[in-house]
Amino acid sequence: FHNFKFNWQHWNKPSTGKVKIKKVDSNNDNKKLEGAKFHIEDSKGKIVGELVTNKEGEAISKDLPKGNYTLVEIEAPKDYELLKDKIAVKVEKDAVVE
């Protein structure tokens, strides 16, 4: 004979969204760039994710809690220079920021 005790807790899933990037040649929007690598930093500068562009020049993040983030390119595609500027994005509930 076993005795079981259950505690029921309701967990509210935090509001989340995603970041989607598209990397193209600055002189030719039709030239998609594969292999660009970005860190996703939260508002405190902590790295919370990484994006790497595919052959279509696109990458999409995992679910992120809503809030402000910064994208920092850490590796440029072959024969290209790193972006000098950081990219500020705001993740909204149930949305994909491009």
UniProtKB/TrEMBL annotation:
**InterPro entries noted in UniProt:** Ig-like_fold, SpaA_PFL_dom_1
- This chain belongs to the protein called SpaA-like prealbumin fold domain-containing protein
Quick one: signal sequence residues?
A: none
Q: Does the keyword Nucleotide-binding apply?
A: no
Q: Which Gene3D superfamilies match?
A: Immunoglobulins
Family, according to the entry, reads as follows: Belongs to the serine-aspartate repeat-containing protein (SDr) family.
Keyword line: Secreted, Signal
Keyword Chloroplast carried by entry = no
Pfam families reported in the protein's UniProt record: SpaA
Q: Where is the SpaA-like prealbumin fold domain?
A: 17-95
Q: Which organism is it from?
A: Bacillus cereus
